[in-house]
Amino acid sequence: MQFINNLLLDMELDPRLVEYLSIIIKIFLIGLICIAANFISKRIVVRIITRIVTNSKIKWGPIILEREVFRKLSHIVPAIIIYSFASTFPTYQSTIEKLAIAYMIIVGLVFIRSLLNVCNDIYQTFEISKVKPIKGYIQVVNIIIMTLGVILIISNLMGKSPLILLSGIGALSAVLMLVFKDSLLGLVAGIQLTSNDMVRVGDWIEMPKYGADGDVIDISLNTVKVQNGDKTITMIPSYALISDSFRNWRGMQGSGGRRIKRSLYIDTSSITFCTEEMIGKFIKVHYLSDYIIQKEKEITEYNTKNEIDRNNPVNGRALTNIGVFRGYISNYLKNHEGINQDMPLIVRQLAPGEYGLPLEIYAFTNDVQWAVHESVQSDIFDHLFAVAPEFGLRIFQNPSGADIRNVVEESENKALIGERNY
């Protein structure tokens, strides 16, 4: 730089012009050096490092390259060069050094943030990441580092000790608590969610208050991201999973069975005692033959033992079509290949109501997949709706428009026939 000054002075130019020209030339040369250094660091050094990482087949190499960690670090080279040449401009040396240091701190913060993201990406390659995610903790570390970085930048530009700013922040703790309220709540919630194993990435959760009903795809410091069944995304505040109730279907997914809990509504007017003809018909049904023989034996022994007169069907015990139908459903489910036989299987009557007598099926499929579960459930009820009339039972259904029209037409036909006969 001194050589440039001497060269311009030897040209016998005006000293003031020499001063301006020397500053312009120095800035231009420093700029060329920065551009050259930036080109070498990005185009040569970073490419060499990328090739080494790629050829070494490091397991986490692609993650490091995807986050562009080395490329972000290369931005510090021009800042170092500018800081080194700051003494060339004695008048502005202090300002240039401060700006260069501030830029180096910013580059360092970006580099550290990229490293933390790489750590999170690497951690997610392990199965334990679904049980104990660390993204929330990394975000907390990011906030702390960024806060300290901003303090260092401000203290550097002001030329004051960072401790002075830190002491001032202590006085603003109430304001900071208000600003970072969600982050603090999210941090506490994240610790509780992880330590108590309340929710994991991949869990199917249901939270109607927030319109969430789907799989958890991400757990961060402030939010839990849920992908619903219609592929929409719902964002739930992390602390809401602690303060509000939600349903986690993980237990069902890991149990090996998915519940069927649905009722057939039987028209109570179709319920009756079984006649000899009906019993003869039922005993030929594959799933009922053993059941009918056993029940008939029990009923006969009971009635004989208690000397009950069976001339009146009200006396003693007797088979009913609803009871036989219930036994048929139970045996049918016990022999169904889609039902998990190691889990509860119940066919029960609920309290009768305005829609008839509910005959509830409580069982579990042996596959937890939604499509398989619905297919098995539909097959079962298709069959039961079809066979119910074979037991003399009617499935209850509110009258439709077609039913009312048929009744009206039948009444009109009867009236017309009556008039003709008259």
Describe this entry's structure for a reader.
By secondary structure, this protein is α+β, with helices and mostly antiparallel strands. Among the domains are: 124 residues, no CATH class; 144 residues, no CATH class. 59% of the residues lie in helices and 11% in strands. The strands form 2 sheets. A 5-stranded antiparallel β-sheet has the order 4-3-2-1-5. A 3-stranded antiparallel β-sheet has the order 6-8-7. Strand 1 and strand 2 form a beta hairpin. Helix 1 packs antiparallel against helix 2, helix 5 runs antiparallel to helix 6 and helix 8 packs across helix 9. The longest helix is centred in the N-terminal third of the chain and has 41 residues. The model has no long low-confidence stretch (mean pLDDT 83).
Describe the global form: rod-shaped
For the largest beta sheet, what order do the strands appear in spatially?
4-3-2-1-5
Distance from first to last alpha carbon: 131 Å
| Strands, count | 8
Radius of gyration: 41 Å
What is the percent of helical residues?
Answer: 55-70%
**Strand composition percent:** 5-15%
Overall pLDDT score? 83
Largest sheet: 5 strands, antiparallel
